[in-house]
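Severity: low
Component: inverse-folding endpoint
Summary: output formatting inconsistent between runs
Steps to reproduce: submit the following structure tokens with default settings.
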């Protein structure tokens, strides 16, 4: 997947190059740098230095990731799983969601409605079509209550939209 590390490139050089494009969690960076052939001790030392300098932050990554996934119309269950898969611990995930709440939060019910409305033109005429819409929202990471709400209200004329 990755080419062996350049003989001149240090773990820091490669990490800076990656971080210049987007935020990465510490675990993601560690995996990428070791895959490039860097020594794991040198990688750990480099990542500690980057974190101390504020160039890499799991907190910042989690908040950025959460915002981007909300804009994609993903629900809280899927976002939590994806953050954990990227090496973010539960406390940081909880903190990112709390921070989002502090900034006005997100109405997960309205987001489920909008996501469903964007994908489907109506609630479906048959049980099979309605089940298809349920599976779509569940796959996007919305919980049972949010799915039920969206199926009942997504096409109401006064259905709220998410900015």
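Observed output (run 2 of 3):
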């Amino acid at each position: 997947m990755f080419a062996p590390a350049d003989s001149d490139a240090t773990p820091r050089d490669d990490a800076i190059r990656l971080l210049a494009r987007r935020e990465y969690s510490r675990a993601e960076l560690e995996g990428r740098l070791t895959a490039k052939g860097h020594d794991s001790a040198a990688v750990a030392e480099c990542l500690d230095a980057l974190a101390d300098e504020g160039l890499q932050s799991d907190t910042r990554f989690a908040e950025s990731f959460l915002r981007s996934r909300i804009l994609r119309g993903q629900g809280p269950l899927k976002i939590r799983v994806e953050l954990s898969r990227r090496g973010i611990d539960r406390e940081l995930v909880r903190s990112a969601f709390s921070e989002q709440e502090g900034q006005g939060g997100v109405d997960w019910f309205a987001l489920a409605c909008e996501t469903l409305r964007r994908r489907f033109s109506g609630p479906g005429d048959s049980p099979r079509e309605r089940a298809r819409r349920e599976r779509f929202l569940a796959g996007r990471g919305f919980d049972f209550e949010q799915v039920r709400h969206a199926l009942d209200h997504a096409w109401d004329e006064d259905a709220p939209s998410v900015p």
